[in-house]
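Protocol step 4 of 6: structure prediction from sequence.
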Amino acid sequence: MDKFSLLDLIGKISVFICLLLAFFLLTVNTKNKLGNRLFAGFLVITAIDLSGFFSYTYLSNYPSLEVFRISVSLLNMPLFFFYILSVCYTDFKLKTKHLLHILPFVLFNLVLGIKFYFLDFADKNLYLKNYNQQPEMIVFHLVNEVQYVIYIVLIFITLKKYKEIYLENYTNPNSLTYNWLVQIATVSVVAHSVVILKDLSKFYSDIFIWANVIVGIIALSVTCWFVLKALYHPELFRGVDSNLQLVKEIVQTNEVKQLETFEDANIRIQIDLLRKYMIEQDPYLEPSLTIQELANQIEMPVRDLSLLINHHLNQHFFDFVNEYRIQRAMKILKDPTKKELTILEILYEVGFNSKSSFNTAFKKYTNLTPTEYRNNALSTT
């Protein structure tokens, strides 16, 4: 098999897998329908883009379709960005203002309407032969790169805020979701960098062809990875409320700054009452405890409780709750009468729902693994 046939085959397999996964996402029963639809749209656009590996064979008699196929790539990053937002925030909805994100795609096709679409067949083919020298195509590639950089920066900013909000308002955060989003964003950056290097090699025909093969293999690998993620982790997505404010945003308000000057004694009383409630009522035993639920239990506005924990105690809600869980786990681990309990049984008993999060939190608090702590504690009794 020569390199052209290999490239053709890789392209067809990649497109097929993308479309198959898109179909699965559009038909699977899930609560996060918008997220699935956006990711399916992203995969369809990706498939159209990847079809460039072999589309010339079929679209040689339809130059307008080939140029339109190229322009569709301007929709890729907006869809990817909206998908990230829909996974991060449970209340995310598409609005009329979001149509502004497709403006580059619309404007480019309007320009092509004047410069290309209404040409006769012979002139269209001539245009395509000098495709890379056309002024509007040079602008298109420039806009595409600038657009990519803007969206990828926005994506990482969104993920950073999502993680901060989760730590300040939830316990046992869904790290699987966050890791998945970071992974696909990072893979996107790496893949895009490889594509740029491939484009730079176009002045060397042999290298350029093999560079295309490498890009095709990477694209195939990434699409297969998407499929495996969908199969092994169908539950992947859990978001946060986008209306939640970060504490650093709250404390910048004049209202909070004024209150802090004369409420130190009251804050101390609130902290003591909160700690007393945590010790006596054990709310941390609930694995999915949120700051809203705890605020309801102690009859305090969630905004005040968030300030109390995240600002005055200088702890994330996540760390604040896990501290009580770890202290309870330590008591159990050093109790000789409970030495028959497994680590797994103990972590569930104190409110954790995964062994990895328990081990991480326990080592952060004690510098020991749960097993090491138990062995040390029982050996001294």
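Step 5 (inspection) to follow. DSSP finds 19 helices and no strands in the chain.
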